[in-house]
Amino acid sequence: MIGIAVGLAWCLWSWRRGKSPRQAWPAVALAAGSAFLLYLASTPLVARWAAWTLERENPAIAVERLPVADAIVVLGGSMYATQREDGSVHLYAKHGSDRFDTALAAFRAGRAPLMVFGGGGTGVEGTPTEGEWNRGRAVERGVPESAALAAGRAQYTSDESQLVAERLRERWAKSLIVCSSAAHLPRAAEHYRRLGFTVTPLPSDFSTRGAAEGWSWALIVPRGLALAQLDGVAKEWMGRVVTSRTNNATHSNSNSQTPVEH
Length: 262
Known about the structure:
By secondary structure, this protein is an alpha/beta fold. It has two domains: 2-42, no CATH class; 61-207, HUPs (Rossmann fold, 3-Layer(aba) Sandwich).
């Protein structure tokens, strides 16, 4: 959008100065090129390809094929709240709610004896953390209270992993099945590996259809939803770059501080 605005403003400035279209070609090229890029970014075709660059790392898997682990970690990101006029609150799952159902299926399949729920809050006063809410939902669905733990309130994936790790270490858990949205899972799983856990990713909430993907002319029709999806993928890739650089910096600092034996 900025490129289009700058290009159009440049075209207008050139026109007012009496320049011919040929002389103003850089401004026209900037506006046209920016508009074309915006069109591409708004198409489901590009959004699907972008999501695939992340989701291909952890394709869909039946929970029965997962290895047995010490615990199943369910990342937050699905709890929302709406406050009614009488002050009461309606809590519900949205977007990444498949994380809860997929992880619960893995627990029922005997893949781990423990579930740990992460997450933040809703921003509505008086509501529980997502971890507490999902723990309660799990217990209602038959998970023993002793087998369901809630981590503290988190804002980001990084601090969520720290809070979840605290609960895991209370139970001496070392191997994990980490369940999150397929596009988010590569970055999320890396946080737990950095903390010393053995991680098996369990993807859910896919944006792509795997082997069922096909072609349709509707894929090149721009949609706001596709632009939002591309924005989410860009966030994940930027987060992975930051995480990777943090890992490298930490590794370099630890090496430089290690005394050399003679």
